[in-house]
């Protein structure tokens, strides 16, 4: 008996010791891409007790992502999976009475996404609509009896009895777009769907798009956005309109700004509409930042609440009492939540810190819900009470538990013309102090975006490969004010390259980077800047240019930016010298000495593969080590999980070949 007790005691102690032993951490690997889930689209129930969200996971068998719907309780103690099908579900919305949850899915082999309705008390979801065309948006009416739909005109050219599609017939100025492909005639319009009878009434028709429908609180009117200029393809103008939510009702134009007015949100009393207005007017407003604006439902003068803030604001949401409007503010590597009192216009920040908030939603009791991410944590849902974030979901705990992530910090560098540039530095975990590292400058796209203090999978994976990774918020990036963003207008590859080289000088001077082992890469405008940089300076020993271009003259008419080109650069036949000047990476390709990997999506209409093909052919002709990777069937964004892993694998293999000390 005594011996048995002793054996049990020793065995229990061994198990207890194992339970207390910390999990051995490892570096992140490209295959971890398959493990990372994505939280999206939070929606608060009418009683404020639950928050629904989408959760995207990778199905490795089908090599695609699949989205299911979940709910988490307001106290964060209970999570409920609502759907679990191979077809995927998205855009969950609570019915106004809170009894139902609607969502979009192409279940049961449907060719088009349909609205499905799920009773929260239990039972299978039921298909609500039988739409024959693409559903772009949908919004419940306040009384729950109707749903406003945004539907695209049917594509009759693709309805042949055979599998051979009829030829595209194109006569629009803007005739192609990434993902959508070639654009024939057709628009998106507003419809009203009766939930009880399933009858659909057409609210708008014609050649113009109508988007972003928002019901007035009493359910009598819809506000929406449209560009009703003579030729909408040739400008960026949009305005706000209102109309009664009935067939045949006239529409009333509220705004007359020649720039962009978007994202209408009614005040709780229905007297005002908050929205986002562009700072600049004109045909193309790439280098711009949205301003929070408010207008009466009757029209008239617009109040610009955030005009003096000089930062981009997003996603306006009225407080429940209608006395303030919350927004997301992009500010120098952060995105925080702030609010303006109305009508006084006093501003105050609600959250701060080196982190990023998005997808802001209000709650019935005056609090907020948002997604929040920081450099060590992918986006999770948080309740925000009196400005204090409280975590609701823990989706990424299993993903993060075995991983040893890089350390992330901000730093400021100075360019040769004295400009101060904000950057983010990733260091591999457990890097010895003072050790000079092979360093990759991974440049963001846009150009009007910014690298922030949020979780960045690509840079974490590069850092896990043993590299310091630098993210440069070059001029053209947002978060630093309008003048900083507009600094590169019609002057591509000049100030941005100065800023990248200034950041390189800094990390070398501080002993962070080994000057003999510098690499550079990026996607989209990051790929374009990679090409500009290696054609300017030979210090980089390896490069990876994704979805980039160099012979800018050849991009006219083969991508989706003709309107920008003619506004910013002028027509090529009128301003040829400017186009040739901006094409210097290709026209001066014989100056490039950097071994460069080029990548592109086969069906990219944003920055077509021709841009990468041209540079690959030039370097191949010049005898510079190079390789071209084309991802089949992919648009500008690479969405197939195995291709996402392949891209990072190739980054690491290419940089290892030329930068890793083992091969020097």
From TrEMBL:
Q: Mind listing the GO molecular function terms for this protein? A: serine-type endopeptidase activity
Instruction: Give the protein name, as stated in the record.
Output: Acyl-peptide hydrolase
Cite the InterPro entries for this sequence. Answer: 6-blade_b-propeller_TolB-like, AB_hydrolase_fold, Pept_S9_AS, Peptidase_S9_cat, WD40
Keyword Hydrolase on entry: yes
- Origin species: Spirosoma foliorum
Gene3D superfamilies listed in its UniProt record: alpha/beta hydrolase, TolB, C-terminal domain
User: Per UniProt, which keywords does this protein have?
Assistant: Acetylation, Hydrolase, Protease, Serine protease, Signal
Q: Its function?
A: This enzyme catalyzes the hydrolysis of the N-terminal peptide bond of an N-acetylated peptide to generate an N-acetylated amino acid and a peptide with a free N-terminus. It preferentially cleaves off Ac-Ala, Ac-Met and Ac-Ser. Also, involved in the degradation of oxidized and glycated proteins.
**TM region positions:** none
- SUPFAM superfamilies registered for this protein in UniProt: alpha/beta-Hydrolases, DPP6 N-terminal domain-like
Where does the record locate the signal sequence feature?
1-19
UniProt GO BP: proteolysis
Domain of life here? Answer: Bacteria
Is Zinc-finger found in the keyword set? Answer: no
Q: Where is the Peptidase S9 prolyl oligopeptidase catalytic domain?
A: 454-660
């Amino acid at each position: 008996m005594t011996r048995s007790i002793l054996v049990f005691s020793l065995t229990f102690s061994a198990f207890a010791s194992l339970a207390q032993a910390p999990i051995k951490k490892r570096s992140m690997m490209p295959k971890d891409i398959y493990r990372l889930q994505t939280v999206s689209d939070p929606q608060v129930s009418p009683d404020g007790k639950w928050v629904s969200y989408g959760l995207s996971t990778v199905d490795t068998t089908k090599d695609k992502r699949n989205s299911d719907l979940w709910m988490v309780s307001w106290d964060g103690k209970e999570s409920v999976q609502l759907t679990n099908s191979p077809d995927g579900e998205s855009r969950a919305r609570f019915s106004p009475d809170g009894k139902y949850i609607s969502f979009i899915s192409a279940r049961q082999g449907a060719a088009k996404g349909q609205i499905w309705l799920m009773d929260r008390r239990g039972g299978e979801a039921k298909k609500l609509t039988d739409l024959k065309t693409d559903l772009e948006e949908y919004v419940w009416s306040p009384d729950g009896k109707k749903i406003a739909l945004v539907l695209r005109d049917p594509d009759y050219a693709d309805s042949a009895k055979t599998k051979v599609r009829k030829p595209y017939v194109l006569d629009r100025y803007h005739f192609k777009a990434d993902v959508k492909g070639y654009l024939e005639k057709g628009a998106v319009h507003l419809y009203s769907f009766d939930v009880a009878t399933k009858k659909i009434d057409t609210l708008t028709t014609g050649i113009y798009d109508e988007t972003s429908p928002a019901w007035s609180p009493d359910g009598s009117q819809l506000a929406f956005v449209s560009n009703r200029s003579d030729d909408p393809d040739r400008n960026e103008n949009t305005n706000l309109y209102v109309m009664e939510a009935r067939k045949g009702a006239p529409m009333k134009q509220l705004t007359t700004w020649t720039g962009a007015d978007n994202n209408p949100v009614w005040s709780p009393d229905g007297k005002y509409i908050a929205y986002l207005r562009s700072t600049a007017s004109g045909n193309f407003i790439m280098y711009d930042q949205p301003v929070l604006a408010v207008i009466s439902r009757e029209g008239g003068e617009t109040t610009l609440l955030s005009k003096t803030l000089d930062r981009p604001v997003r996603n306006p949401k009225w407080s429940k009492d209608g006395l303030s409007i919350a927004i997301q503010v992009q500010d120098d590597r952060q995105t925080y939540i702030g609010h303006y009192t109305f009508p006084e216009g006093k501003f105050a920040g609600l959250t701060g810190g080196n982190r990023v908030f998005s997808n802001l939603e209000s709650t019935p009791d005056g609090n907020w819900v948002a997604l929040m991410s920081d450099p060590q944590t992918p986006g999770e849902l948080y309740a925000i009470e009196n400005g204090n974030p409280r975590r609701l979901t823990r989706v990424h705990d299993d993903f993060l538990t075995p991983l040893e992530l890089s350390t992330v910090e901000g730093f400021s560098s100075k360019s040769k013309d004295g400009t101060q540039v904000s950057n983010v530095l990733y260091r591999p975990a457990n890097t010895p102090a003072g050790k000079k590292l092979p360093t990759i400058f991974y440049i963001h796209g846009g150009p009007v975006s910014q690298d922030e203090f949020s979780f960045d999978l690509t840079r974490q994976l590069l850092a896990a490969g043993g590299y310091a990774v630098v993210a440069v918020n070059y001029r053209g990036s947002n978060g630093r004010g309008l003048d900083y963003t507009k600094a590169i207008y019609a002057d591509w590859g000049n100030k941005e390259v100065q800023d990248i080289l200034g950041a390189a000088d800094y990390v070398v001077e501080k002993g962070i980077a080994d000057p003999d082992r510098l690499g550079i890469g990026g996607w989209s405008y990051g790929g374009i800047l990679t090409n500009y940089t290696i054609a300017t300076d030979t210090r980089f020993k390896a490069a990876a240019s994704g979805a980039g271009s160099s012979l800018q003259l050849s991009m006219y008419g083969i991508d989706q930016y003709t309107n920008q080109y003619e506004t910013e650069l002028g027509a090529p036949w009128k301003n040829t010298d400017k186009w040739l000047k901006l094409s210097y990476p290709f026209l001066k390709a014989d100056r490039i000495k950097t071994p460069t990997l080029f990548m592109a999506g086969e069906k990219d209409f944003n920055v077509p593969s021709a841009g990468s093909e041209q540079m690959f052919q030039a370097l191949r002709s010049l005898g510079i080590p190079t390789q071209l990777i084309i991802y089949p069937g992919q648009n500008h964004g690479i969405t197939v999980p195995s291709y996402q892993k392949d891209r990072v694998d190739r980054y690491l293999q290419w940089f290892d070949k030329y930068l890793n000390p083992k091969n020097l």
